[in-house]
Amino acid sequence: MSWLPLSFGFPAILWGLLALPVIWWLLRLTPPKPQMEVFPPLKILARVMKKEETPHQSPWWLTLLRLLMAALIVLALAEPVFNPREKLPTGGAALALVVDNGWASAPDWDRRVATAERLIADAASTGVPVLLAFTAEKPNAEIGPFDAEAARDKLRATEPRPVPVDRPAVYARVAAALETLPGASVAVLADGLASEGDEAAFGNLLGGAANVVWAVPERLSAIGLTAAENEVDGFRISAVRAADPTMRQVTAGAFDDKGRRIADATLTFGAGEAEATGRLQVPFELRNDFSSIAIDGEPQAGAVRVLDENSKRRRVGLLSQSEADRAQPLLSPLYYIRRALEPFADLVEPSSPDLAEAIPQLLEQKPAMIVMADVGTIPETARAQLVEWVQNGGTLVRFAGSKLAAAGNDEELLPVRLRVGERSLGGTLSWTEPQPVTEFPPTGPFSDLAPPNEVTVTRQVLAEPTADIVERTWANLADGTPLVTGAKREQGTVVLFHITPEATWSSLPISGSFVEMLRRIVQLSRNQGAAAAGAEGQAGSLAPYRMIAANGALVPPTPDARPLAVGAGKVPVTIENPPGLYGTEEGVFAHNLLDAETVLAPLVRPRIEAPVTEMRYAFDESRNLKGPLVAAALLLMVLDTLAVFWMGGMFTRRPKPAARTSGSVAALLVAVMAVFAPAGQADAQDAKPGDAEAIEAISTTRLAYVLTGDAGVDSISRAGLAGLSRFLVEKTALEPGQPAGVDIAADELSFYPIIYWPIDPNAAMPTEAAIARIDAYMQQGGTVLFDTRDQFSTGLDSGSASPANERLREILGNLNVPPLEPVPPDHVLTKAFFILPEFPGRFNGGPLWVEASLEAQNTDNRPVRTGDGVTPIMITANDFAGAWAVDANGDAMLPTVPADPMQRAYALRAGVNIVMYMLTGNYKSDQVHVPILLERLGQ
């Protein structure tokens, strides 16, 4: 029964409203009890002449109050619902709920969860099980069937992923599970974007469905970045969206590695256009600082693009001694070099042809690479400056020619020793035919490039055969002679092309391979060129460094992230390899979600034979009014009782006997209590609530951690303490129980000797009451280990406090904190179990702060009373839990920084020392008194 916007779950109860006239009649016939007074002679005399009156009915306002109270109770029992929603078809053998949780679902994920909860609630009302599957989870994720409560728990625990959806694989699993549940209903909550294999996947899933619920967004507003190119005159970015008849304009911002906004660009999508480009017009020095680009107002992973060294331009100096540049440009030594380098480098040339002036002019502009086209003897002054520049990290690329061949060997500015003379067709060292270029060596930077089989060489400068000639060869001819050689010179690199840069000795300068080879050398010239070359040139794996979350934020690697195998072709974005940066602080590789071929096409609903119900993503706006109506009835009941007390004279100045409520009100109270009282009787028990939990907590030693509310942080804390507990069992006689997560505002803290508190700047600030409980815990002998986990992100030389440090200061500002100092070398912590000079965690370099040992015996001046010499507070920034964390197999979950296996071992030993110190106090320091005690005992 429904009267919009109000409906009733049990409308038959509304017939009880017909009893209101009867209740009114009964209340009118039942007058209130006469007022009673203690014998006052004078007051009786004052009223003796008055006529005695007794009320014959209740006041009208009291009758109205009681009628309204009865009406509210009847309405509450009828289960009224304001703004009711239509129940969805979720009957049959089961409900199969398939939800897209890829990157496109992140902006309105809460709305999608609310929609799925409505479907689960409808399935619960019909008593059918629920199959719940997500299209961006691991292939072995559990899909049920679940009961309604378990399905809700799984739904609320799932978050959007920054990866594409995999509908074919997930739909196939759900279809296989539905084979045992014929006639089930299927609900598809899609993100609205088409993907490869959708038609077959939907046919497999919906073929045998009894009912289908179809939900897609009303409007596809997602915008994704597909490309970011650092060009000559600016930084060009490309974006795509689903086809839309309206025009839209968005702003993209460029950010450096510290999150500071450097530049903006505007992208305009015309009506019906799905692609747009924008340009960031800033100097190339600023463009080289770009670390990421993000679209404003788009909280999803596709709107963020991270950048690595491949997106940064370098300044390249060009130098040639030829005078034919203007007369015959095609024969100029620098003509083909300019054409090859202009798209991805900023070229500079000296104003003077004199090498003594030209080389210093180039070095003053601080180039990353210098290209010399057939430069012979270099003046000694300029040569010394050039050698110093190379040794400090510069890259020198030289091309052979008659001048270089005649200049002789220069071991510091050439990668190999050269033979005197040239090798050419018909010469002294002659070929019978031009030599082609063979496959590039696998150890060089050109290993992943296709060999230019069409390129031939007719003349070259030969290298002297040495023991290391193979290691220094980057490209070979078919007869085995080197075409390109390279060698390290301290921090820099020297490269030699054994041919001229114009098309006189070979056809390489007019081939596409020439451009790719120079581009790869430019990448090597960068500060992180070694890591970038390794990422692109050779197959290997790079550890996760910074990941793009589903909402577009850059976050530390998740436990699911695995090293990225690069160099073997295009690597797809998966849960194990989410988008982000891979590598180390010395060099990273950008792994982005979308590429230049990405097209965002709207999802078209397939042809379905079963009945289809379309719904929209929305929060449940229906409100159950039973609770408010019952509360209103109870309030009126309280007012009725107070009114009866007032009419009986209870609130007058003289003490009066307690007035009794009328029989009708008592009967009404009994009736309400009978309706709403729980069934059964509560048996009296001697045990108090929480006794069982307290006994369990003290039966074994357990390490505890503070629950921050962030599932990722809490899971790492639990895994870290579990790993430390396992190590304690292996190395000591202590066998701690499972780690305990504690709510500092509610849980009892005295059960735990130490509490690990990871500082999360995004978590809510603890209340004053919670901080007071922590203060009391510390005063009673407990210890809190605060871990800001920001040693790596802020750096040892950072001048400003990190967000975690700021939050820690706010917390400590409300605590009675004793004077602190880094752990001194003779502190008990350094020898409690292992001998340790430092206390590293996942990061290394930050000290472990403890209570200062000054005036330890004077307890009157101590803000916090220590227990047996144990510090009540410890502070670190090294992320102890991240180093201790292990998975179910005992494998480390997060890499150490730097990646040193011994650092994790030292971190675990540091944890053992901290636990032993907390459990045994200053027993180690007391050992120094053993000889004196023995002497006093006469032993």
TrEMBL record:
It comes from Mesorhizobium alhagi CCNWXJ12-2. It comes from the Bacteria. InterPro entries: Aerotolerance_reg_N (IPR024163), Class_I_gatase-like (IPR029062), Double_TM_dom (IPR011933), DUF4159 (IPR025297). Residues 702-919 form the DUF4159 domain. This is RNA-binding protein. Gene3D superfamilies: 3.40.50.880, Domain of unknown function DUF4159. Keywords: Membrane, Transmembrane, Transmembrane helix. The chain crosses the membrane at residues 6-27, 59-78, 629-649, 661-679. Residues 6-80 form the Aerotolerance regulator N-terminal domain.
